[in-house]
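Hi all, long-time lurker, first post. I run a small reading group and we've been trying to get comfortable going from sequence to structure in the token notation. Rather than ask abstract questions, I figured I'd post a concrete chain and ask someone more experienced to write out its structure so we can walk through it together at our next meeting. Sequence below, copied exactly:
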Amino acid sequence: MAEPSIRIVAANEASWDDLQAILTGTAGRCQCTRQRLGDREWYALPVEQRAAVLREAVGCDEPVDRDPSRTAGLVAYVDDEPAAWAAVDARTAFRRLRGSPVPWAGRLESKDDPTVWAIACLVVRRGFRGRGLSYALVAAAVDHARERGARAIEGYPMLTGGAEITWDELSVGPVGPFVAAGFAEVTHPSTRRLVMRREL
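-- Answer (accepted) --
Happy to help. Here is the structure in token form:
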């Protein structure tokens, strides 16, 4: 039996329908905008408006004259089926990160540095989990950020201790894919959360 083919593209090279096929359940209600908007604005918006915010950020189905370097994430396909998503952008694009204590505990660093990027969210579609797609996405996010001028990229993953964790908690991703992609621990701001970083 042939190994499945995994292909990862910038989100503006994917269709909006493909991205929506990945964002189901809790992820569908979020539309990957909570980190981007911050809690106050996010709670005030209905799902349809959250989706509009995401669609503008990712540029799916946009005319070819849109700047191809600007998109807010990556879409993974398994045998040409849309399977997973990673929100990857300049850290300054994620308003909730700015107000959260997690990225900044014990650090003296400018919150306004656009050359530091972040992986704010990882979603693997049901039916495609357990295939290592988070590992592939985090590795691809490193290249994606580097190609767009980032000097460093961060993630804020969770230590699971092998326990089953619901997606809304684990949307930041587990630690393993970040370690495998060469990220190093910067701080350990809570019992289960790490700040991890890779210089580019």
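A couple of things your group might point at:
The chain has a mean pLDDT of 90.
The radius of gyration is 16 Å.
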